[in-house]
Amino acid sequence: xxxxxxxxxxxxxxxxxxxxxxxxxxxxxxxxxxxxxxxxxxxxxxxxxxxxxxxxxxxxxxxxxxxxxxxxxxxxxxxxxxxxxxxxxxxxxxxxxxxxxxxxxxxxxxxxxxxxxxxxxxxxxxxxxxxxxxxxxxxxxxxxxxxxxxxxxxxxxxxxxxxxxxxxxxxxxxxxxxxxxx
Length: 182
Hints:
Alpha-Beta Plaits; 5 strands; disordered N terminus
């Protein structure tokens, strides 16, 4: 079995053909809602590990998303952190989607790797995304996200998973966000 350094060496300087395909034809615009999935390199279950300060890595990721929501970079509707990837639904308010994901990835990679006393890369180079159309599409994706820990066999009911943050409804522009976002 390969160790983390071997995985990292295999990815340095060479991109997976899949990551190139993920970027082909990518278009994003402010004001649109997006579903994003980002995976840990090698699909290692690092996001539920404890950092040296005692928090789970997932809490650091949630804090980073919450911050971007609070400063107006995005409006977050839901985040589910799985052991080896996360699902995020946002309305992009500033920048382009690749800029948003790169910023989130760079910050969380540095913080989580430091907290785990690990110096290797954390995230795979690409990410999956698709634009959500209307409230029906948004609600359907949030429902999918909510059930992800159950489908993975991690819990028997969605509310048992500690790393699920989903707003109970799609807040309209200007309405106060509920729940974890504050």
